[in-house]
Amino acid sequence: MASEHREEVVPETTDAVTPPAPATAVDRTAATAYDPYAGRRQAAYRLVQVIYLIFGIIEALIAIRVVLRLLGANPDAGFAQLIYGLTAPLAAPFAGLFGNSQAGGSVLELHSIVALVVYALVARLLGKLVWLLFGETRSAVTTTSSSVETRR
Fold first, then answer.
1. Whole-structure pTM over 0.85, yes or no?
2. Where are the domains of the chain?
3. Which of 17, 41, 98, 148 could form a disulfide with 110 if both were Cys (CB 3.0 to 4.6 A apart)?
């Protein structure tokens, strides 16, 4: 509210008083919006991202395996042993699916390339399945309003 200041002015010949200013009206409105499904949607999004991260790491390891075999890396080197040891169980279900083409020391592992495609499809399928089961696609907004009016 505005503060009011009155002042009396006394002229030499007449008395005059300044009339008070009228009080102003104050309206205050507050609105709050809340989406009750936002938490569930965020949790499902995080779970899908974790699935994509895990399968992304798996695919990166298999892709490194394909490149190492294709470039004819020394299988006795520590890094090659690590990659081959980590990816052997991942590529095993696809072993024997195709013959391996060899030229010099290079090997084209077609079954590892098939494993890349299959794991990518499985990741996409699991991500969509998790989103359908746990992700809330509907949205609702609950709005609360309050109003204060002061009038004189």
1. no
2. 51-138
3. 98
